[in-house]
Amino acid sequence: MKELNQLDKVLDEAKKLSLEQQEMLIEILRNRLSENQREQIAQDAKVSLAEFHAGKLKIQTAAEAIQELQEYINNPDREDDLDNKLSSY
């Protein structure tokens, strides 16, 4: 709830800006969001590479990975099986 109040305050303040300033704000926020997303992808990649080098991940073809994901989607109640399968690598 507190986050919504803070967001409402920010939106109210943004409404007071001129159209040009609002456009600049939008561009700044988009750029920051893109940068944050790039940083998150880079961090995820580092973790994945570390897990791969530690032997926690297996090498799969794209077809094998897709088939495994489809099996998971079709049988969500078998999540424990997937967790066990993944932890065995």
Mean pLDDT: 89
Q: How many domains make up the 3D coordinates?
A: 2
The end-to-end span amounts to 42 Å
User: Can you tell me the overall shape?
Assistant: elongated
From the alpha carbons, calculate the radius of gyration and give it in angstroms: 22 Å
Count of extended strands: 0
The unreliable regions are none
Major pleated sheet: none
The percent range for strand residues is under 5%
Number of H/I helices: 4
Order of helices and strands: HHHH
Question: What percent of the residues sit in helical stretches (DSSP H or I)?
Answer: over 70%
Briefly note the structural class of the backbone: mainly alpha
How would you describe this protein?
By secondary structure, the chain is mainly alpha-helical. The protein folds into two domains: 1-57; 58-89, no CATH class. It is built from four helices and no strands. It has helices at 2-15, 19-53, 62-74, 79-87. The chain is elongated and about 55 Å long. 0% of the residues are buried. The model has no long low-confidence stretch (mean pLDDT 89).
